[in-house]
Specification:
Blueprint lengths: L10 E2 L9 E4 L23 H14 L4 E4 L10 H10 L3 E6 L6 H9 L4 E5 L18 H14 L3 E8 L7 H10 L6 E6 L9 E5 L2 E3 L17 H11 L7 E3 L10 E8 L4 E4 L2 H15 L25 H12 L9 E8 L3 E2 L5 E2 L7 E4 L2 E4 L3 H7 L4 E4 L20
Parallel strand pairs: 1-10, 2-3, 3-4, 4-5, 5-6, 6-7, 7-13
Antiparallel strand pairs: 8-9, 8-18, 10-11, 11-12, 11-13, 14-15, 16-17
Helix pairs in contact: 1-2
Bound molecules: iron/sulfur cluster (SF4).
The site of iron/sulfur cluster (SF4) has 10 residues, from loops.
Length: about 425
């Protein structure tokens, strides 16, 4: 079952290529795990601080941003990760570390906080082949999520988010993960579900770099037999099985399909025991516009002090239907007005989808743009740049150029 969602009733997040909430820095290609859904080659290669500085120059030249996701690879494998955090903070951006957490210690976290770290996004799911966590379910991984959430809370003053890639066989676990996030709403600020995709499907398409046909076999994952068409509608439908009133507020559409939900944002307000309601699209719009008016930037992550102030937002009830519903509940149960209410975001991300006619539906206003050869590039498809010097075009098999008219086949070469 899929959920009925109408993009025209939600707020289209205002992010675009030059004025966005975030950008994506890749200081290393090395990772200490091998997740099934990873779209990057694992190469033991770090960028120097000088090269990283040049990437930051590119962001500064092209893009207004609030925060930078420091990703990879896993950024904690970089021996100078603390310096990298400081470099980002020194330029006035919020450094957000995207990590699997394997190499994280509390001492290192405190050191990064002193260097200006704003928050962390932990990627944790059951397909990462973590030592000691093999064959554990998605729900059993909540113990690991809690370990990191509590560590971040002990250090204090940092945002704490969790990413999970969602596969066909883990789709059913989503309500349990959303319930876990609610149980820890005071220390878990964002939950992100990323729908599993494969970067290429040679059975459906031929691939071209410019005019040259390319062999993409090394870009594909192991054939897991998993669905690659799980959408935000499917994820919302799963969540609504337990929370029928679950109400997304904002989205990013696709570059090809205005009604596809590439990023779908829901913001809920509640306590560990109960969710009292969801912010409506007007409230999310006001937050983004107000932030831009006052700081010149769209907001990436709210500071932890702000997400504890769910109750004071009720004062804005005249402007937002979601707040009016919450206030109505409060009037029927006045004790709500004396409780601390937390704000928690739930984001669903649906990476590239290749349409039957070969068009590629990317995130319109991609927040995760990184740097390739001094230019902005989609981080989810950087391997194509590395292997072919540019992004690939997709041509449906039935429209393929006849063999005798094809240029030489370019074979794939690793940069190792
Ligand atoms: S286009 Fe790719 S890199 Fe950009 S936000 Fe979407 S999935 Fe991420």
């Amino acid at each position: 079952m899929t959920a009925a969602l109408d993009h025209r009733e939600l707020y289209r997040l205002p992010w675009n290529l030059s004025d966005n909430a975030i950008a994506w820095l890749e200081p290393t290609m090395k990772c200490n795990l091998a997740c099934e859904g990873c779209y990057r080659a694992n190469i033991n290669e770090h960028k120097s601080l000088e090269e990283i500085g040049k990437d930051l120059d590119v962001f500064e030249r092209y893009r207004k941003i609030d925060g930078i996701s420091i990703a990879g690879g896993d950024p904690l494998t970089h021996p100078q990760v603390v310096d990298i955090v400081r470099m980002v903070a020194d330029r006035g951006w919020k450094p957000i570390l995207n990590t699997n957490g394997l190499a994280l210690t509390e001492d290192l976290l405190r050191e990064m906080k002193r260097a200006g770290l704003f928050g962390l996004t932990f990627h944790i799911d059951s397909k990462q082949h973590r030592p000691k966590w093999k064959n554990k379910t998605e729900q059993e991984h909540n113990a690991l999520r809690l370990h990191f959430a509590e560590m971040v809370a002990r250090v204090g003053g940092l945002t704490c988010s969790f990413n999970s890639t969602i596969y066909e066989d883990t789709l059913d676990s989503i309500p349990d993960l959303v319930a876990w996030a609610q149980e820890h709403i005071d220390i878990v600020h964002v939950m992100v579900f990323i729908c599993y995709r494969e970067p290429a499907d040679p059975k459906r398409f031929d691939y071209y770099a410019g005019a040259r046909k390319v062999d993409v076999s090394a870009l594909t994952y192991e054939d897991t037999g998993q669905r690659v068409d799980i959408s935000a509608h499917d994820v919302v439908a799963k969540i609504r099985e337990r929370w029928p009133d679950f109400a997304p507020a904002a989205y990013l559409n696709g570059t090809e399909r205005p009604d596809s939900f590439k990023w779908l944002l829901t913001v809920r307000v509640g306590t560990r025991k109960r969710i009292y309601g969801y912010l409506g699209h007007k409230m999310v719009e006001m937050a983004q516009v107000w932030n831009h008016l006052t700081t010149g930037r769209y907001m990436a992550y709210a500071p932890p002090a702000m997400v504890r102030r769910g109750r004071s937002m009720l004062l804005l009830w005249p402007f937002d239907r979601g707040l009016r519903r919450m206030l109505w509940r409060a009037l029927r149960s006045p004790s709500l007005l004396f409780r601390r209410l937390y704000i928690q975001s739930i984001m669903v991300i649906t990476p590239v989808e290749v349409l039957d006619d070969g068009r590629q539906d990317m995130c319109d206003g991609c927040p995760d743009m990184t740097v390739w050869n001094g230019e902005l590039a989609w981080s989810c498809r950087l391997e194509e740049c590395i292997h072919y010097g540019q992004f690939m075009r997709t041509v449906p098999k039935e429209h393929a150029i006849p063999q005798h008219e094809q240029p030489d086949l370019v074979t794939l070469q690793h940069t190792e």
